[in-house]
Amino acid sequence: MSSKLTFKLGIHPINWVGEDVREHGADTTYRTILDDIRRLGLTGTEMGRKYPQDRALLRQELDSRGIRLVSQWKSVLLSAPEYRERELAAYREHCAFLRDMGAEVVSTAEVGGSLHFDPRRTPNEKVVQRLDDLGWQSLAEGLNEAGKIAAEYGLKLTYHHHGGTVVESPEEIDRLLEMTDPSLVWLLYDTGHALYGGADPLAVLRKHYDRIGYVHLKDVRLSVLAEARAEQADFVTCIRKGVFTVPGDGDIDFPPILAELSVRGYAGWAMLEGEQDPAEHPPYEYALRSLQFIRQHA
Predict the structure, then answer these.
(1) Measured on CA atoms in the order 174, 178, 179, 183, is the torsion positive or negative?
(2) 71 conformational bin, left if phi > 0, alpha if psi -120 to 50, beta if neither
(3) Xylose isomerase-like TIM barrel domain: from which residue to which, for each copy (predicted)?
(4) Considering the entire predicted model, what is its pTM?
(5) Torsion sign (Cα): 244, 249, 250, 252
């Protein structure tokens, strides 16, 4: 990897197996994913739904390939106070697992109001239900509590601003960070979701760098996004249409982003992501080209 990079590069299994679109990579095995990651020369991954749930087996499969588990997504429903106790108990269990696996961060996202996660919503609803002031206050208080739990286990809570959720736009990112404790709640900076949510990814990076604890490098095909917006497509439909891809294959200007991370001395993990149909976009080939792109332009 280029000596200009100060940070560690890993890759998310979502390139091989969809999380939101379950048919993407449905027949792919975890061994295929991990073997490809090793062939790419990368040493970090996030937990994926195809990976072994048994801790001993997962550790064995990772260790045998020189790969470490860096993080795992954790959905939370903290905007509704009545869910907080249950959600924080589940969060503690999640952190215990990640600590045992040697992870560093917890990728955390609020699902209240979301179409594809909120258990209180029905399949026929079409729009994200934005939070009111009470919902925001409950979310911020709950995240601070979850951040304390993460710290107990030697982890950082990194909040994942995410398309199709209530923390999606640049204004919502700003509000979340203003309302939470900077010593407890960090930002998972995602280039693709920043653009999807209406922000300039470089501007988000520069504005909130001091809160960034983890990075996802994801690209966006602007022509596909424009078509999806015209059709008023929801987030999951956007994935099916191919809005997202790996860095260098879409329209985000990555060299200034990579330079900013390196100049600032970011030393954490950055995960390559390209949430798209692996049958149409072979994950290993796309990841290899993306790594070459990063080496060339970093």
Answers:
(1) positive
(2) beta
(3) 35-296
(4) 0.96
(5) positive
Structure confidence by residue, pLDDT tens digits, 77-136: 999 999 999 999 999 999 999 999 999 999 999 999 998 889 999 877 889 999 999 999
